[in-house]
Amino acid sequence: MTFIRSSFIFNSNQNWVSFLRIFVISLVALFVAGYVFILVIDPYDSLPYSIPASRVPVDDQQRFFHPALARNPDFDSAVIGTSNIRLLEPRRLNELLGGSFVNLGMNAASAYEQSRIFDVFSRHHANTKSVIFGIDYIWCNKQYFIKIIPPRTVTDFPEWMYDEKITNDVLPYNGRVLNHAWRQFLHMAKLRNFTYGLDGYTVFTNPIDEYDIKKARRNIYQSEQPLENKPVEPPVLIGSDEIAALEYPAINYLSIMLNQLNIETAKIAIFVPYHYYFQSTPGSIEEIKWNECKRRIADTFHSYNNATVLDFMIKSGITTRDENYWDHKHYTEAVADQLAELIALGVLSNDENPNFRRW
Amino acid sequence: MLFNSQLFLLLFLPVTVALYYFFSSSERMRILLLILASLVFYGYWDIRFVPLLLGSVSFNWLFAKFYRKHHQKRFVVIGVALNLFVIGVFKYANFFAENIAFLTDSDFASWNIILPLGISFFTFQQISYLVDLHKGVAPIYPPSRYFLYVTFFPQLIAGPIVRHNEILSQFALDPRRDGMHERLSRGVTLLLIGLIKKTVFADRLAEIATPLFDSVASGEVLTFAESWLAAGAYSLQLYFDFSGYSDMAIGLALLFGFTLPINFNAPYLATSIREFWRRWHITLSRFLKDYVYIPLGGSQYGRMREALALQVTFLLGGLWHGAAWTFVLWGGLHGVAVIVNHVFTRASLHIPRSVGWCLTIVFLVFTWVLFRADSVATAQSIINSMLVLNGLSFEVIDQPHRWFVVLALIPALIGPTSQRLAHYILKPRPIWAPIIAVCLWVLFLRIGDDVYSEFIYFQF
Prior knowledge:
The complex is a heterodimer. Chain A is α/β, with parallel strands linked by helices.
C-alpha cells in the first residue's frame, strides 16, 4: 500500500501550531478584508446603504455598470441595443431630439439582456420621453434567441443587479468585482480618471487616425479587394404560407418592452446600418427572412402610438462606402454622428432620405 | 458540488470541518456528520442519485452480513453480479444495445439513461469489499462505518479507489490526536496544489485542446502542428485535471485526519509503459491487478495465459472508463504495449532509459487521442494528421495561448510531485503560511470569475 507519508508520524510540535495559526489568521483576514473593501466601495452603486461617493463606470463591461446608469433620474430617454448602436452619442441626441439620453447599448446583448436593462430604466423613469431601439441580427435570427450569447456565460450577466430585490443583492466575491472595487476606489481617491462616459457613451473603436482601409476591407470582405454582394439569379421565391411560418421569437421581447412605455413616449426603431456586403444578398432566402422580420418588427412598433421605424440596413451611400466601417457591422464615429442626424430627421419630420427606408 | 467551487470552499468545507472537530470526542457523531455531509455533497448535483447510492451501499452491506451469517458463496456472487448489473444498466446498456442493433441491422433509439456520478468508483469499491470478504480478509463492519467508507465525499466521485482495510480503521481515530496541526497544514497545502493544477493548468489546457478536438468532430481536418498541439495539450490537461482532483481528495481527507493512498506519481517520467501504469491512476491499476488480472491467472500459468490475462484486464480497464469503442481500443492498445514490454524485459532486451521515455511518451500522446475523441473517426483523423498523412503544415490557427503547453510541461516533467511538495518540501516555517493563504484567496477569487468546470474523471 502506498500511503502519503506512510512511514512518517504527523506531529504537533510548536512549529506546526504556529504555522497553522498564522495560516488561519492570514486566510480569514484576507477573506474578510477583501469583502469588506468591496462592500464599502460598492463598485456598481447597487447596495441600498453605501458610502455617499461619486461612482463611475470603471470598465467597459456594460452589463455591470449600466444598471446604475439606467436608474439615474437625470435621464429621461434611452438607447437600447448592442455594440451596433453604442456609438450613438447621447449629447448629440439631446441636441437633435431633445431630452436627456443615456446609451444603454451592451456588446452582443441578447434580446433577453436588452429587455432586462430596459426594465431597469423603465422602472425608474415613469415619464420616458424617447427610446431608440437598435435592431440587428439579435432580433431576426432565431439562432441567437438564447439568454446569454456565447462566449459569454451566466457569470458575465449579473442578473441580481437587474431586479428590485434587496435580498439577492449580495455582491459576488470574485476577482472581477474586487478589481472593479479597486478601480472605483482609485476614482474616488482621484488617483485615476476613467474614460467610460457617465451617459453610457464610450468610443470603443480605435482612434480614427489608426484607421487602415486595407484592414477594414479584410474585416468586411475577408479580402483586401472589395467584393460585390451579387444578387441571386434567379431570385428565390417562397410561398406566403412558408413566409408566415417563419419564426422570430425575440420580437416578443420588443412587445414586452413597448408595453411598458407611455403613449407619449417616442418609440424609435432603427435597423442598424450594416455594411452592404454583409447585408442579405438580394434575391436570396436570407433577404426574404430579413424583410419578413423587418415587416413584423415594424408592425409591432406601429401597433403603438408615436412610433417611428427607420431602416438603415439598406443599400445606401453610408452602407456601400468601405471607409465608413471598421468591419462589417461597426461604423465609424463620423457615421454615428450622421446617423443621429438622420434619426432626428426621420422622427421629427416626414422627410425621406436615400440613407434610410421608412417602414 | 465541485471541489473547485466557491460554495464548497467557502461554506461546505469550513462548516463540515468545524463541526467535525466540534464533535471530535464522539466517534458516532463524527461518522454520522461525515455521512450526512457526503450525502449533501453528492445530492447537490442531482438529488435523484442519492437513493441509488444509499440503496447500493445498503444492499452490499446486507449481502456481506448474509454471507457472514450463512457462509454461502452465492451471496457474494449475487452481490457482485448485482453491482455489475447496476453499473451495466446505467453505463453500458446503450452501448451494448447499439452494437447489437448494428450487428443485427436493426434500428435502435438510445434510452435516456443518466449516468449517476461516481458509479464506477463506488461500485468497484464495494465489489472489492465483497471479494475480500469471500477471501476471508475482510470483516463485517458496523453499518455506519461501512456507509462512510463508500460515501466519504473526498473520494466518492472520482477516487482514489480506497480499500476498506486502508481507511475503515482510521475512522475510529480522534482527529485531535497528535499531529493534528501538521495534518491540517499539509492537507490545506495539497488542496491548494490540486486547485492550482485544475484551475491554472487543466482549464487553460482545455481551452487549447477542446476547440481542436471539437473542430475535428465537426468534420474539419487539423494541420500537422495543430494535431500535435491538440494531443499534447490534452495529455497534459488530463494529467493536471485528474491528478489535481486526487491531490484535493487526499488533502481533504487529511483535514479530517485520514490518509488516503496516492493516485499519481509523476507518470510522465515513466520510461516504460509498465512503469507508467505504476505511476498513473495507481489505485485503479491496483484494483484491476488484484480483482481482474490475478483471478484470471496472472503470471501463474505460462506466458500465453499471462498475455491473455493482461489483454483482458486492459480491455476491461478501457471499458471501465467509458462505454465506447474508443475506450476499448485505447485499453487494447495499452494491453498490447504492456505485453510487448513484458516480452522485452523477459528477453533482457534493454533499451536506454531516454529512448524508453521517448517511446512511452509518444505512445501515450497517440493513445490519449483515442481516449479524448468522441469517435474512432475523429481519433483517426487526428492521428492521420499527427502522422503527416494529411500533409505537413506548421500552421496553427486561433491558438494564441499555444505556448502554455510548453509551460505546463515544466511541472509535469520536472516536478516536484504534489506529494513531495506537500509532505517533504513544505516545512513549518512561518513565511509559508501567509503565502499559502494568499494563493488560496487568489484562486478563490479566480474560481468566482469563471463558470465551474467539471473534472474529466467525473464522467467515468
